[in-house]
Write a sequence for this structure.
């Protein structure tokens, strides 16, 4: 999972910087911006947060009226420096960023190398970039080239590309990863609508499945390869900002309803959210059950999101530094802790133990997301069944007096749109990954854990 921004307007670097800051929660490993001016590319990318990588001088140097930017959260590859986006090729001249995961990555990589293409990273945007380059050289037409790319590339992808001074946006045929555009004189594209708000653009709509948009002096759009709808449910549960609107649904409102839709049959004195993403769900849960809502966990806002850290060791260290309990709030109370989801159980286990040590009489743990039972191959970082605590004795491992999960029906009702991807809940993969892909992704994860 990553975040992307693209703008066709005047002096775009400052706005791209603002947009990337807005969606920094989508990736904290690396970031980058590339712009085009008078036929030349200007690029900077590096490891670190947006406000660490870029300064005023960089934004002045990144001149141009068209540009794209990226923040990265690693799901593939083991060399962070090489995998930082954007990427570009000069044969023909294209720059690209993307959000998603290509499930036939290894097959495409081998084909491209045989065709003389140089793949320099383990990042799957490179295979999309070079596939588009090959198709453009064959057809000389952007629409036909992108259609052929959509046929070749399997998986989830929201892509932004620069071809000369044109800005190109396209979304995979199932629209798995979020992608919106807005306008205000010029045009802007982003992973989330909150970025458009902060950059001063008015949200127009989400890109449709298999849609291509080309912006030069004006915007042209066409759905060229639609196969269905499978919007990622985890965007609503955890990943996106609560002020973002995805497929017409405000994330905050969905999370309130997620809390209201949980069936809970225990006695409790207080409800406490695990900050920050679970606050709306905890509020909805408290309203439904008539239990007092309290802020009992204080988060250190400078440690980042633990879920998107690339290794288990890093996540465990971060959890220790991330939260502290207000003892006076939980002492002698029957506490319900509401979290957005339970993936590996790292955070859940430590929080339950922390609240018990602070004097809670009982600790009940509630997840606004159903049980995660299957790997995600479309951009969320749980690529193997073995990582998922819901497949094991989760009550004992988490250490709570009870553990309650959202139902799949409750999730779907709260989100309220058709065409959700729930593969991580029920194993229904719209694009089945090959055994080779699943095995190699698991091997990459093991290598990353021991680095």
């Amino acid at each position: 999972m990553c975040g992307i921004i693209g703008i066709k307007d005047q002096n775009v670097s400052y706005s791209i910087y603002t947009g990337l800051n807005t969606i920094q929660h989508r990736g904290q490993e690396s970031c980058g911006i590339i712009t085009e001016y008078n036929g030349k590319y200007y690029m900077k990318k590096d490891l670190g947060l947006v406000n660490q990588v870029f300064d005023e001088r960089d934004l002045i140097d990144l001149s141009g009226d068209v540009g794209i930017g990226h923040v990265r959260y690693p799901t593939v590859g083991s060399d962070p420096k090489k995998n930082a986006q954007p990427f570009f090729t000069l044969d023909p001249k294209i720059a690209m960023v993307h959000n998603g995961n290509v499930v036939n990555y290894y097959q495409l990589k081998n084909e491209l190398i045989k065709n003389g293409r140089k793949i320099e990273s383990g990042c799957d945007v490179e295979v999309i970039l070079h596939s588009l380059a090959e198709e453009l050289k064959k057809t000389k037409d952007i629409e036909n080239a992108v259609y052929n790319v959509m046929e070749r590339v399997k998986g989830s992808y929201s892509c932004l590309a620069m071809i000369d001074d044109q800005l190109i946006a396209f979304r995979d045929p199932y629209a798995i990863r979020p992608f919106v555009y807005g306008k205000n004189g010029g045009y802007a594209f982003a992973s989330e609508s909150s970025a458009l708000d902060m950059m001063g653009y008015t949200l127009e709509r989400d890109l449709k499945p298999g849609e291509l948009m080309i912006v030069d002096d004006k915007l042209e759009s066409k759905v060229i390869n639609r196969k269905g709808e499978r919007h990622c449910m985890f965007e609503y549960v955890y990943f996106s900002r609560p002020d973002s609107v995805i497929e017409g649904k405000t994330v905050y409102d969905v999370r309130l309803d997620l809390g209201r839709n949980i069936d809970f049959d225990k006695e409790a004195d207080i409800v406490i959210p695990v900050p920050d993403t679970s606050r709306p769900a905890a509020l909805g849960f408290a309203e439904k059950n008539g239990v007092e809502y309290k802020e009992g966990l204080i988060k250190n806002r400078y440690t980042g999101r633990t879920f998107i850290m690339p290794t288990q060791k890093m996540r465990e260290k971060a959890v220790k530094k991330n939260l502290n309990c207000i003892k006076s709030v939980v002492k002698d109370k029957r506490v319900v802790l509401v979290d957005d989801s339970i993936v590996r159980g790292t955070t859940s286990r430590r929080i339950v133990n922390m609240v018990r040590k602070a004097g809670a009489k009982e600790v009940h743990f509630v997840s606004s997301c159903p049980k995660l039972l299957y790997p995600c191959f479309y951009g969320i970082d749980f690529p193997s069944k073995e990582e998922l605590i819901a497949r094991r004795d989760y009550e004992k491992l988490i250490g709570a007096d009870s553990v309650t999960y959202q139902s799949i029906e409750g999730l779907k009702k709260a989100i309220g749109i058709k065409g959700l991807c729930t593969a991580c809940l029920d194993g229904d993969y719209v694009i089945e990954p090959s055994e080779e892909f699943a095995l190699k992704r698991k091997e990459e994860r093991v290598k990353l854990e021991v680095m």
Summary: The longest helix spans residues 435-450.
